[in-house]
Amino acid sequence: MSAHTLDAYRRDLDALVAWASTQGIDDLATVHTEQLRAFIAAEHRRGLSPKSLQRRLSACRSCYQWLLKHGRVVASPAAGIRAPKAPRKLPQVLDVDEAVQLVELPTDVPLGVRDRAILELFYSSGLRLSELCALRWRDLDLADGLVTVLGKSSKQRSVPVGSHARKALDDWRRESQGQLDAPVFPGRGGATITPRAVQIRLRQLAQRQGLFKRVHPHLLRHSFASHVLESSGDLRGVQELLGHADIATTQIYTHLDYQHLAKVYDGAHPRAKRKT
To answer: What CATH topology corresponds to 96-263?
Structure first.
């Protein structure tokens, strides 16, 4: 799991330990179902969102599965507890014109060639931020138009790289004189660029290009997925491109596609709009 996920689970279990201590419980192995349900209810009263409560409970389930596996408990108190349902938010995306406006940066400015390569690759291949930052030149096959990345759970996948991104990367490689084992996008001291540096840079570039939405790396990944699905209708293919383990994660983009179709219908059908 990523460092962010581990930190989040650690905070969740710290919250359980802190609550247990207020109840006079000094060993998590002695917690029973009603007590764990009371913990979730207390967190809800404290103002945690349904999504945060789901993660709290997920951390508890994992903890008690581990205790069960190692013989510390005879049954998991988390097994019969359900978290409240969280409303599912549709991801924000750029439309095609906005995406083109963003990636078509001028390259005759400082770092322009590098920045163009970053944006083109994000939008072309739908990479996660961590995947782009970790890239080395040996991971790119520009002749065949492929990039190989190590995603979540150390799962490797190869993703196509579009012609505009290939050209931008080729230009950047010539300018940076990148070697096979070197990072594609080096940061200070020649190490890989940090995720935070990329996030800040994207925000600056979006403003420079006249886009005043909140532009971040995952917005480009969402836009990539939405635009490919809108054009192809191939949900399974989009799942493979994104590296989702579960197709249910990818299905959120079908809602965006339906939203797009609804807008087309409302704009085109003479009796679509309701009278006001």
So the answer is: hpI Integrase; Chain A (1.10.443)
